[in-house]
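User: Predict the complex with iron/sulfur cluster.
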Amino acid sequence: MPKRKTKVPPAPVCRATEPTRILFWSQCVGAPTTHRGKKLSELTGLPVLRPSIRSSAIGLASECYRKYLYRYRLGLESKYYDSALTIGKVYHSIRALLRKGKSESDALHIAAHLLGEWQQRTLDATDKFGMTSWGQDSSQVIEKGNKDWQIARAMALWAHHRNPIREDEYEILGIEKLIEIYYQTIRTPIRIRVDLLLRNRETGELWIYDEKTCSDPPMQIMAGLKFALQPKLYRLAVEAWLQNDPSAPEGKLTGVCHDLIQKLTIRQKQKESLEEYIDRVSQEYDSNLAACTAPGGNLKELKYVRSTIRYNAALVDEEMLLQLRQADRMAYTTPSLSQYPRAVNPLITCVQHKKLCPYMALCESNPARWKEEIIPLYYKVRSRDIADEEDQNEWDRSIPA
Ligand code: SF4
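Assistant: Here is the predicted structure with iron/sulfur cluster placed in the model:
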């Protein structure tokens, strides 16, 4: 006889887990494109810019649209001292000078001169209590700037000597090459600056060479660079240049070589001479390289990496096209606060690497105070495409060609 099935009673419903459903229909509060009826240009007193497409701008927009609006459409740059930015600029400037054939002492002399100019500007903005007009202790800022300059200088000299471009193998075709192109129906120009363009003397392959300073281990950065937009933009712009400019060099663009160096945190000691300090920094990089590349060493902890990415996918894929179209729209949209919303997750985006976003003063204040009070106090205003400023940063603007 088949066994009779016992009827299982239904599980009790736990009312506490059921969502409360409410249909709520409300009008949007406030005018969508203005603040109390005012346009953004009236609130800031600034012209609205149309920035070119570049990976740094798209990267910023992906973090927070409002940040992109402030920096690229309104051309605002914080007056607060930024250590990472300074180290990156000085490092690039010294390496560029050395590549342009300047002697080491000339390169350092020019960098020192630029440092002096920056210090003077900081002092000019200092009141009788020793505070800058934007509220930083002037002597502390200058001391920090000096230390950052020392470390950037030591890093640049070490990288220049440790891993020079082998000119018997590679011909240098361009240094700091600026290229601007228009792609199909995208209205906004794409702009890149290539640190170096190299040609392999034997194979004729062309390589883009890109130098970066970073706070995180270079291997981590490399992992992300494989599918980042920047190498793709480089490729698109350089290909366009090679195919359309009769004066462009011949050869097949093969890939990009990244030269990444992690910033050290060791500082110059009080009684240490500059030469001793540079030696100590060099030793730190050398011993890291030796330890990480020895059998059993951890490559993830390398502080300096030179690595290549070969271009083998489509020149422009659908993902990239979408990114270009988005960037084009961001550059053309009539700017308003609602079109460029603030970060979705302020807890993560507004405080990155334990640093407060430089645009916090704008975000947390009433826009009615921007024009007269907040902007003059905390921001430098760039009146032209900020990409131009980035391409010609204040450290290398006065570098002789
Ligand atoms: S403070 Fe936050 S919301 Fe405002 S611009 Fe910066 S990241 Fe965006």
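The longest strand covers residues 170-181.
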